[in-house]
Amino acid sequence: MINLVRSEVLKIRSTQVWFWMVLLAAAFTALGTIGMVVTAINDHDNGAPVDYYSVFTQSEGAGVALLVLGLLGLTTEFRHKTITPTLLATPNRWQLLAGKAASYAVFAVIYALICVALNFAIAIIWLSSVGVPVEFGQGVPGGVAKAFATLVMTGMFGLGLGAVLRNQAAAMVFGIVYFFILDPVLNFTPWVRKVYAYTPGGAVQAFLSNGNAEGLPGDVNLLAPAAGGLLFLAWTLALLIIGGRINLSRDIS
Questions:
Q1: 73: closest CA among 42, 110, 105?
Q2: Phi, psi of 145, rounded to the nearest 5 degrees
Q3: More exposed terminus of the chain, fewer Cβ within 10 Å: N or C?
Q4: CB-based contacts of 226: which residues, under 8 Å, 6+ apart?
Q5: Rounded to 5 degrees, what angle do the CA atoms 153, 158, 160 make?
Q6: Contact present, 54 and 138 (Cβ < 8 Å)
């Protein structure tokens, strides 16, 4: 398994995709942090309480980069027909999937660490420079840990979605459209919004919510944060298992 993970890591590093995804993740983190820091400064100047939880959890905004990175994990192999030599090298298809999941988890952890560090650097330096006190109450440590875990799970979610859909373009479009367009629509759609809490997007929002459900209709009740995190993990594992069963357990060539 160690050799398999090393091989998969080498595959990721052999292209420039990982580098561009790092830049994308950093850009989303920086933009989100800048926006929340500006809000925090305005709140402080107006005598309102500063939402430190939101300030220090903006690294989760880099989820789109982790999603795309995961989506490319298997879809690239199918698109460029490299899946056949890959399976010749590792005939056990479940072992192959486990190796890919482990290698992409390694990269997801590195990405998450970079994003958390960037979030803290921007927020602490900027707030301190304008005289706004930096505090880590309001559940901030737990929020940072949840943002970190969300980024890692999002990478694995993308890998599982790619395993299910197989087609790179379809997986990319569906994943991005779901989280950035369809998900916000679902929580305001009658009838559908009553089960929104059990969707992947609802689970992520619950996990990161700090117990608050701001901006949602009154009849939308999110799960508890811990339950939301477990549900998103369950969605991720389910996609990996289904994708492995559908597309890795049948004839490839």
A1: 105
A2: -65, -40
A3: C
A4: 207
A5: 95
A6: no
The closest alpha carbon to 126, from 34, 51, 26, belongs to: 34
Whole-structure pTM value: 0.88
* Of 247, 237, 249, residue with least CA distance to 91: 249
Amino acid code (one letter) for 158: G
Summarize pLDDT for 188-243 with one digit per residue, the tens.
777 777 788 899 998 998 999 876 656 565 556 788 999 999 999 999 999 999 98
Residue 26 reports pLDDT greater than 70: yes
pLDDT at 252: 57
Give the C-alpha separation, 212 to 30, whole Å. 24
What value does the mean pLDDT take over residues 56-60? 93
CB 45 within 8 A of CB 133: no
Torsion of CA 153, 226, 115, 27, to 10 degrees: 80
DSSP state of 133: P
- Tokens 């933009």 appear where? 31
Task: Show the tokens assigned to 44.
Answer: 């402080």
